[in-house]
Amino acid sequence: MLTLPAPDAAILARRSEIASALATIVPDGVIADDRALVAYESDGLTAYRQAPMIVVLPRSTEEVSRVLAYCTREQVRLVPRGAGTSLSGGALGLADAVTIGLARMNRILEIDLDNRCVVAQPGVTNLAISHAVRGSGFYYAPDPSSQIACTIGGNVAENSGGVHCLKYGLTANNLLGIELVLPGGEIIRLGGKHLDAEGYDLLGLVTGSEGMLGIVTEVTVRVLKAPTAARALLMGFASSEAAGAAVGAVIGAGIIPAGMEMMDGKAIAAAEAFVSAGYPSDAEALLIVELDGPPEEVDELSSRVAEIARQVGATSVKASRDDAERARFWAGRKAAFPAAGRLAPDYYCMDGTIPRHRLPLVLARIRELSAHYRLEVANVFHAGDGNLHPLILYDANAPGELVRAEEFGADILRLCVEVGGCLTGEHGVGVEKRDLMPVMFNATDLAVQQRLKCAFDPDGRMNPGKVFPTLHRCAEEGRVHVHHGQTRRPDLPRF
Amino acid sequence: MLPTRPRDADELAAIIAEAARVGTTLEIIGGGSKRALGRPVKASRVLDLSALAGITLYEPEELVLRAQAGTTRAAIEQTLSAHGQMLAFEPPDLGPLFGHSPGLDTIGGIVAANLSGPRRMKAGAARDHILGIAAVNGLGERFKSGGRVMKNVTGYDLSKLLTGSFGTLAAIAELTLKVLPSPETVTTLVLHGLGDPQATTAMTAALRSSHEVSGAAHLPTRASSRAALGTNSATILRLEGFARSVKARAEALAAELAGFGAAESVSDGASRVLWRQVRDMASLIDKDSPLWRVSTAPTCGHRLAAAVGPDDVFYDWGGGLVWLALGGREADAGAARLRAALAPLGGHATLIRAPAEMRARVPVFEPQPLALAALSARVKRSFDPKNVLNPRRIYAET
Ligand SMILES: Cc1cc2nc3c(=O)[nH]c(=O)nc-3n(C[C@H](O)[C@H](O)[C@H](O)COP(=O)(O)OP(=O)(O)OC[C@H]3O[C@@H](n4cnc5c(N)ncnc54)[C@H](O)[C@@H]3O)c2cc1C
Fold first, then answer.
1. Over 80: is that where the pLDDT of B398 sits?
2. Which CATH number fits domain B9-180: 3.30.420.40, 3.30.465.10, 3.90.550.10, 3.10.450.540?
3. Which pTM value belongs to this model?
4. Where do runs of H (alpha helix) occur along chain B?
5. What value does the mean pLDDT take over residues A96-107?
6. What distance in angstroms lies between residue A156's CA and the mean position of ligand 1's atoms?
7. In Å, how far is A480's CA from the nearest CA of chain B?
């Protein structure tokens, strides 16, 4: 079971004093009432709950900076939070920490289409950015399924992706600049409307750093002109192997579709029962390939892709005739999570990435694990970039099932690493995969990362207990000794 | 002193560990083509990575290539082109700019300098194409980050951090790159005779369109004639992709830009030559003055140039990348007035080519505000506490 850093009794004892001090910085923005704090006790990974000591909801960069400076002075821990949709427990509270919620900083500050960018506060939702520029035919490309709710600040912290990132990239590839408040309260700017700020790529480093290096208080993102045409192809296959072969063949032919999503038989059946998307009911695997661009390109590529699919044995190929039909094809995929929610009381969503050609092996092993753990699993897959989302179905009220689901999930992630992939493609490590980090990284790899954290957060107060399996004290010069693959700090807590 | 030339990553680690132990310093080189870029490095020894060469994994259908850091660009491009693929970030070869022959550069050097060409606007920079990295820090410790898959948020993205760090944090031993299919067809539209502001307006219109322009450069008269595009200025817009698509987009774009004059179109072969010139830039700009590279918001580039009055100039990235020959007769190569003019617009100015004596005196890279400079120094210390690797190559303080 999950362990979090032990709360500091001295801090807990000062709760009301700390709350009043924060209220002088952020009037009307401090929550310290136990009943109200319940709303902040978990994020999208609902299996874990821990209410924070206090929540503070600043409205400006200056307030964020003053809150951080205060917390540094008083040695109070902090947990940043956007919309709380993290699927890895990144925004999970700590009993002795202040959760700093950015949701009130929700203004779009500037739309500059001549430079193809939007400047926004961190609490703006992902979708609100696209909406702000939609009238001019632009959009923000990374499109996580949670886009109506999740914040752009959270997207930066998790380097979130969506179904279109094969062609258009993840958050990191669409982010031009940020304003960042360091744990001590200093405000720095990284990047801006110009490309490739020189010096160390701290912008790239902060992206995906899960709220452990500072608070993002402003973002500048690139927006794109929407393509003039788009078409989705819906293709059924007799096996996941055949569908996987089709994906490889499409890319091998030099085609990078806007999106390429795969679902297995179980996921197809669930989605079909949920939204009647018109998926072929006899298929063991389904591929949705979206092509976008000028109509000429969409026409040509959809016939090339259909041809390739038939050659590798597609049992059905259907092209969307209009946007309504295209939306219908996608509806099933987009509803895959809630649809899985109908198959069982609970589901647990995994997020490993694998080299694509290992898919047949990985799916076969997942089937074996499913039998072993006596839990069903439905697979949805960002097939183009090898990001696998097995949904493990379980019942949290059935004794032992949650633990089995977690063990099953951990085995899947170990398998992903074993075949050359990684623990998480887009959901982050958080608390969920924290203890699996050594599967991917040796002690030196982890020490190098933790020393880097010390460069930002020498007291280890930003989101402690996340990502790294051990807490880490920053030594002089930010050094940790690694000796024979062991860190020489047996005194430090291991979770 | 003879350079030390490790044959594998273990030797590399041993050399750096030894340097850290005895307190010597190392200048890291790959092909040596960019040694004159950055502040001059004064180190006890040269650490030559050219023997760490070879492509160790290439799976075209997975869009992934792994190579040791000393692998030459030529070797990588040859392997990729045999499979119709490319490095989409189009790295410039700066060798000729510094008086070397082309093709010397290694992938490690390209990545350490985060070099990206005209396609940067659309396809991303070098840093956007690094999937994983294996490196040795200033203590001689081998570490890795990332991996070989397209999506990976497991731990901090050290691959991006090392990209553009000019070897000051770690010596890169091996890199895994995302590669992409090369375009089937390339075409270029040329608008003749536009002034810099008007050209920027035209490029902005092109980049605001849905036609997926993959290169937008403006060559004022001198650069234009060096590129053999005539005696007037040339504003060039590149379209790439599948033949039918390129044709359709080129026609539509030319029609949309009709107000800027009739667009001439350049054939596939000539387009490839032209964009290579823009990418490598040495043949397009004055050779005598110090050379500056400025990155700013695309609509601001021409305003910056107008404010400083360079000896020679041309623009890439839709106006956001400005190459300026400036300050030939000024003691600071025009640094102070260039940076003062840039400050209100936002961006950074890098002194790309100047005599070593000048690069030791004039900040080559944009000076950083205090809090950021202090943070950068702490980041450097976290990788290289003894200051072994490329000391002071980026900033005088680190
Ligand atoms: C139904 C559902 C579908 C999803 N689909 C996708 C998907 O398709 N692709 C995908 O990538 N993810 C997906 N997610 C995961 C989640 O939505 C993303 O990780 C999202 O980016 C989190 O944003 P948030 O605002 O909710 O952040 P939170 O959950 O509040 O926080 C996430 C992390 O970011 C940190 N953080 C938040 N704001 C800041 C800030 N301003 N500065 C510094 N750190 C900060 C937090 O400390 C935490 O570590 C999905 C989640 C759900 C519930």
1. no
2. 3.30.465.10
3. 0.96
4. 9-22, 73-81, 107-112, 120-123, 158-162, 196-208, 221-226, 243-256, 268-280, 301-308, 335-342, 356-361, 370-383
5. 98
6. 8
7. 10
